[in-house]
Amino acid sequence: MSKLDIQIAVDVDGWPDEETLHQMAQRVLGAAEAFLVSEKAQPFPEQPTEVSLVFADDETVRDINSEWRGQDKPTNVLSFPAYPIEPGDLPGPMLGDIVIARETVEREALDLEKTFDEHLTHLLVHGFLHLLGYDHIETEDAEEMEALETGILAVLGLSDPYAGQDPI
After folding, report:
1. Model confidence over 7-62: pLDDT tens digits?
2. 109: domain range?
3. For residues 132 and 79, what is the distance between their CA atoms, to the nearest angstrom?
4. End-to-end Cα spacing for the chain
5. Has this prediction a pTM greater than 0.85?
6. How many domains does the chain have?
7. Is 136 assigned to a binding site?
8. Where residue 89 sits, what CATH number does that domain have?
9. Is residue 122 a known part of a binding site?
10. Annotation-wise, does 119 bind a ligand?
11. Would the pLDDT of 168 be above 80?
12. Which tens digits make up the pLDDT trace of 21-30?
C-alpha cells in the first residue's frame, strides 16, 4: 500500500480531468514508491508523505522557471522539494511539489514519437526522483537516476527513454 498522499491542482484547461490525473498519479507514483522500496533505494515513513502535483501550462512554468532557476523559458517538469533530502534519506511529512507544463509535454511527446500519457508518466517519475534528492548534474548521479527511472518505467510497461543516449 502506498505511503503517498497525492494532492492535485489543475491550473489551466487542456489537461484531463482531475480524477483521471489523480488515478494516473497514484498508479505511477505508487509504482515508483514500490520499486524504490523493493530495490532498497528509498525508505518511506509509516505516515503518508504528501506530494503536490501542479498541472500547468508553458506560461506558468516559464514564470516559475525564470523566478526560481533564472531560466526565462518553459520546461517540461520542475520539482521543488519541501526540505533538502539526499537519496536514501527518510522523507518527512511533505515531500514537495512537481509542476508540469502541458504544451511542452505535448511537443516533446510528438518529437519522441510517444503518447502524451507515456511521456507524462516518465516526467512524473523524473520529478518524483528529484523530490527524493536524485539529480543528473554529474555523470555518476545521472546514471543512478536514469537506472531508477528505467526500472520504474519498465514496471509500468514502458521502454527505456534513455536507450542509446549518454547520461543527461
Report:
1. 999 989 999 999 999 999 999 999 999 999 999 999 999 999 999 999 999 999 99
2. 4-155
3. 10
4. 32
5. yes
6. 1
7. yes
8. 3.40.390.30
9. no
10. no
11. no
12. 999 999 999 9
